[in-house]
Amino acid sequence: MNITLQLFGRFRDFADAPELHLDLPGVTTAAEFRAAFEAWARAHWPDAAIALLQASAIATDTTLLHARTPLPADGRLALLPPVSGG
Amino acid sequence: MNITLQLFGRFRDFADAPELHLDLPGVTTAAEFRAAFEAWARAHWPDAAIALLQASAIATDTTLLHARTPLPADGRLALLPPVSGG
Amino acid sequence: MPREDRIACHVVDIADAALDPRDAIAFVSDDAFGGIDVFIGRVRTRSQGRQCVGIHYDMFDPLALAVFRRAAEAAIEAHDPQARCYIAHAKGKLAVGDLAVVVAFASAHRDAAFRGCRQAIEAVKYQAPIWKQEHFSDGAAAWSDGTPLVPADATTGREGA
Amino acid sequence: MPREDRIACHVVDIADAALDPRDAIAFVSDDAFGGIDVFIGRVRTRSQGRQCVGIHYDMFDPLALAVFRRAAEAAIEAHDPQARCYIAHAKGKLAVGDLAVVVAFASAHRDAAFRGCRQAIEAVKYQAPIWKQEHFSDGAAAWSDGTPLVPADATTGREGA
User: Do B81 and C154 make contact, defined as CB atoms within 8 angstroms?
Assistant: First the structure.
């Protein structure tokens, strides 16, 4: 599946652009995406990013995704590290 | 003692002026004033005012008076029915 | 900064000016503070099921100001000794929509801001010499029953009053 | 009035405009309401013992707005089904003294106003996709550690994330 992953907060420091474009074959749920993306991240990002990834949520424009939630058809996702608003 | 008693709230409806001027001989504490003024009020005001008087506080410009507190030398007091600000 | 300079208390005659929350926010703002809580009391149309057109607030000004100041001091003491507090109450004939009271409390942290503001408005409502006369759409007027005042250190209710 | 018309949520880019508490107060004011509570979060000079010169707020706007709206709905549901709620958060590079967030909640009674406002700001802080990068006077910058997001109906912490 072709995924566009928006990055926020500290993740912006690990990438050159605010979005990653990834082709992840066979990925259909949030849990599958998480596993496939973690493998990608281990190859491209430092260990600090992997730890942050494990504390992060996967979301669409309107909601956080549960592990078994199917990914949206357009493949647009957001990677949300722990939040600190207000 | 010559007393000037300022009236507030519902007490304003029982008097023609916002202040009463009373000569109450032998009165030196808040409790003595309360007793003497209640006698005066029974002669001049309706029963509703007496009930309200019993739920009211006696004060100076800066503080509520306890029963045994001596009255201020200038004899200026305020009669404060139950409050409803805010 | 001494605590007395971090407290502002006002009685405002509606004939002279309206309360303005901006004054409260400006007074309590400080670059050391991250949280400001502001409570605004506004005259509303209904009270006890009757249509209200306005409220006349009667006030014993000097004692009200003394009570506001003590309320602010107590809220600061209880929730953040470095905090700032503003208390203003209107008097006179207010119409529906007019602001009756504005309280603001600012602190480094929001929990203290909320708690300090709440403590201050509760003291204003239950300890300040202020009386509300509601005016209804049928022409009637009624003083609110209210809460009896008791000296701060009285131990047996009305005993000290 | 339908509940959705009694809720206003905004993300404001500091490059375009500053947050203004007057907008919040105007939105929630209603002649049926006697109590308005407003919380204002302001960028402060010190954080964790270091001198702060500003905060960069990053935000995932569409989800933030959805979270604000759900937070307002939940606060209204919990404290007064007739209440009004306003939530606005700034994004971009804020300086000390700039307003980061303004929440207002209005109800017939003040207890609901305080509780509704508090519930809404807590949801903004712990559930909205917003990230704070603090800039210190020595030139350093640091993203705050923050709180992990968990789907609303997840029962086992990170299981659902």
Answer: no
